[in-house]
Automatic annotation (TrEMBL):
Reported function: Catalyzes the 6-electron oxidation of protoporphyrinogen-IX to form protoporphyrin-IX.
Cofactor (UniProt): FAD
A GO BP annotation: protoporphyrinogen IX biosynthetic process
Manner of cofactor binding, per the entry note: Binds 1 FAD per subunit.
Entry keyword Cell wall biogenesis/degradation: no
Coiled coil regions, renumbered to chain: none
Compartments it resides in: Mitochondrion inner membrane
Listed EC numbers: 1.3.3.4
Lineage: Eukaryota, Fungi, Dikarya, Ascomycota, Pezizomycotina
Name of this protein: Protoporphyrinogen oxidase
Family the UniProt entry places it in: Belongs to the protoporphyrinogen/coproporphyrinogen oxidase family. Protoporphyrinogen oxidase subfamily.
Length: 695
């Protein structure tokens, strides 16, 4: 059981780790006081294994605060957003004898995940309730993704999996556009249908449409010669050399990296990549770090992985060993019902019939049922400081308390301000603030003929400064309603699914970046005027068309990982160690990627590190020689450690340790949902229990 593992893992004996290849001499010869563990062992290539190459040597010490002698440790979690709520819940399950206190400055919990019902009038002047999302509304789940699998398991354990809708990759949500310079361009990809004929026809249409766009659209000017330059100059690299290039590459902006790769053509970055960056980060493509964003693998576009094929391999990919370890854990922890849930949700888009806030509400309800959790709302943390006896003191206007461990999920600059200058590196971080303008027209179909998820706006588009994108919420809701109708006909569903009604009107969300300090200011009212003017002009909507709007402002909602992000976090790691001795850790989008899935993964990782669950993998695993996949049972996630920033402790070496070249054919079996293919994976059978029940 997790409770037993959490209490004893810190004393588990270390096991020899299995590696397929020793580290390169330049890395193997160096050492660090922050690392311990056995040297790697070269056992040669195995045709029945799927790790072809890995450099892993040892593992990072997480210095768990939950030990056999002190299972009743006191832990504080700062911040009641998605990351904070998830962290507190995982802690309460992994360490049921620990006392956990969650601090949130506002009375409301849930952070940027916020669903609101607004009263409006329909086209006949009758009262009508409109549901708006002020934050995220859709999650894309991938079958071979560790974070997606963890999300599915969490939904099942919270008891809300049946409240989640599921739309495939060929649904209306897959239709994507960019806006440049003054009109929409369809960039929807080809079909993922299992039918070969449908897939072939869709691919041919996609290729024809993209060729036409590349020849006629200013947004795609230079794309064809840019691709030709990149493909004609690709260099083949072996496994070790390929990973070395990935790790040793210099940090630079997304824009400069893409411009260099595409032969000096900046138009691809300015027109295409800038629109994607607006949608994910709300930031400047010429400032954001290529290494610290979802564009990181773009650095490897000039190279081609050249590995001798194993007996079954059709392709190879670069993976994180810690992700494979997570996949093993989730698969072994899953019940039959959660596997069925995964089969329905994975490989497409999902959300909740009642709005995305159903997720954070379920987390709050689960926490309130746990006897070892205290939630302090309306408690703004004013000071966090080291105390005597290796404790950390947390002060609010209401109280002062000391803890064995404090985990902050606050925006990094906010944490810097309440730690008395002890972690100055975090004070240098920036965050993008957003105006979210929710719009509802009582008349339906006003965004015709453009239907789908919505569109993103390139940095070179002819629009008001700060406009980032427009989401077609009514199109999404229409697809969800049709999905609920199909579910109701084909399976037994909850009353929530059965009560779904077809959407009315045209619902849109316009995203605008709040101006920076050196730009002219903009009020929420001005943002509303700009948003309405844009959609009326774009879709030809008359000025006298009835409309209902709401505006909200999210301050520092998307941390900006600018060039040098990893170096500043290495400094922050050292400062946290020096000032707090590893008793203060951090987690959340200030440090890792933004979004629902990365936030939940960050919460799991820091909770596992704090309670010693990661060490349990090593201590409870039998001999590594028992199974070809056993190495993943013996791998700790180097991204965490005592501060949450362990991967930055020794520069890029931790990243090197976590890389592996994977045989794609065998990985496909490994990530499959059929549990019988994983019966001998060496991970203890861990049971979460249901979070929806009282502890």
């Amino acid at each position: 059981m997790l409770s037993r593992i959490g209490a004893t893992a810190a004393h588990a004996p270390a096991k020899v780790e299995l590696c397929l290849r020793a580290a390169p001499p330049c890395l193997a010869s160096s050492s660090s006081s922050s690392r311990r563990g056995p040297k790697s062992h070269h056992i040669g290539h195995r045709s029945n294994g799927f790790v072809v190459w890995t450099a892993r040597r040892g593992y990072a010490s997480s210095r768990s605060v939950i030990t056999k002698d002190k299972p009743d440790s006191k832990i504080a979690v700062l911040g009641g957003g998605l990351t904070g709520l998830s962290t507190a819940l995982f802690l309460s399950v992994f360490a049921p004898r620990a006392s956990i206190t969650l601090y949130e400055a506002n009375e409301r919990l849930g952070g940027w995940v916020h669903t609101v019902d607004s009263e409006a009038e329909d086209s006949q002047g009758r009262p009508h309730s409109v549901r708006f999302e002020r934050g995220p509304r859709v999650v894309q789940l991938k079958e071979g993704d560790a974070n997606s699998r963890l999300y599915v398991l969490l939904l099942h354990q919270l008891g809300i999996a049946d409240q989640a809708w599921a739309l495939g990759q060929d649904s209306e949500l897959a239709r994507r556009y960019i806006y440049h310079p003054d009109h929409l361009i369809d960039l929807t990809g080809p079909s993922n249908s299992d039918n070969r004929l449908i897939k072939a026809v869709s691919l041919a249409r996609f290729a024809g449409r993209m060729l036409k766009n590349a020849l006629t659209e200013p947004a795609l000017k230079g794309l064809l010669p840019a691709l030709a330059h990149m493909l004609s100059n690709r260099k083949p690299l072996g496994a070790e050399e390929y990973c070395r290039c990935l790790v040793d590459s210099e940090d630079e902006s997304i824009g400069s990296c893409l411009t260099r790769i595409f032969g000096g053509r900046s138009s691809v970055a300015d027109n295409l990549a800038s629109a994607m960056t607006h949608g994910i980060y709300g930031g400047d493509i010429w400032k954001l770090s290529i290494q610290s964003t979802l564009f990181a693998r773009a650095q490897m576009f000039p190279y081609r992985l050249d590995v001798p094929k194993a007996s079954r391999a059709s392709s190879f990919s670069v993976e994180r060993l810690s992700d494979l370890n997570m996949m093993t854990f989730v698969t072994k922890a899953s019940s039959k019902d959660s596997v069925v849930t995964g089969q329905r949700l994975l490989g497409g888009y999902t959300g909740f019939y009642g709005g995305m806030e159903a997720l954070t509400e379920a987390l709050v309800q689960a926490l309130r049922k746990r006897s070892n959790v205290t939630i302090e709302t309306g408690s703004l943390v004013a000071d966090v400081a080291p105390s005597s006896n290796k404790l950390v003191e947390v002060k609010t206007a209401k109280s002062t308390a000391t803890f064995d461990k404090v985990i902050s999920t606050l925006f990094s600059r906010q944490l810097a301000s309440i730690t008395g200058g002890r972690v100055p590196a975090l004070g240098e971080k920036k965050g993008a603030s957003m105006h979210v303008v929710n719009i509802w027209f009582p008349r339906s179909g006003l965004n015709h003929p453009h239907h789908g998820f919505g569109y993103l706006i390139s940095s070179q588009a002819d629009v008001e400064r700060g406009l980032l994108g427009v989401l077609f919420d009514s199109d999404r809701e229409g697809a969800i309603w049709r999905e609920s109708e199909q579910r109701e006909q084909g399976e037994k569903v909850s009353s929530l699914v059965a009560r779904q009604q077809p959407p009315t009107g045209t619902k849109l969300t316009v995203l605008l970046r709040v101006p920076s300090e050196d730009e002219p200011s903009r009020t929420p009212e001005q943002a509303e005027v700009i948003a309405l003017a844009h959609v009326r002009r774009q879709f030809g909507i008359a000025a006298d068309e009835p409309v209902h709007t709401q505006v909200s402002t999210a301050r520092d909602c998307i941390p900006q990982h600018e060039v040098g992000h990893q170096e500043s976090l290495a400094a922050a790691h050292a400062q946290l160690e020096s000032a707090f001795g590893g008793r203060l850790a951090v987690a959340g989008p200030s440090y890792t990627a933004p979004g629902i899935l990365p936030s939940i993964r960050a919460a799991f990782d820091v909770a596992a590190s704090c309670t010693g669950l990661d060490a349990a993998y090593r201590g409870l695993a039998p001999s590594a020689a028992d199974h070809a996949l056993a190495e993943f049972s013996l791998v700790s996630d180097p991204t965490v450690g005592a501060t949450g920033l362990g991967r930055f402790a020794d520069g890029r070496r931790s990243m090197w340790d976590d890389l592996a070249i994977v045989d794609g054919a065998v990985k496909a079996d490994f990530v499959g949902l059929k549990k019988e293919s994983l019966q001998r994976v060496i991970v203890p059978r861990l049971q979460f229990g249901s979070f929806s029940k009282s502890s």
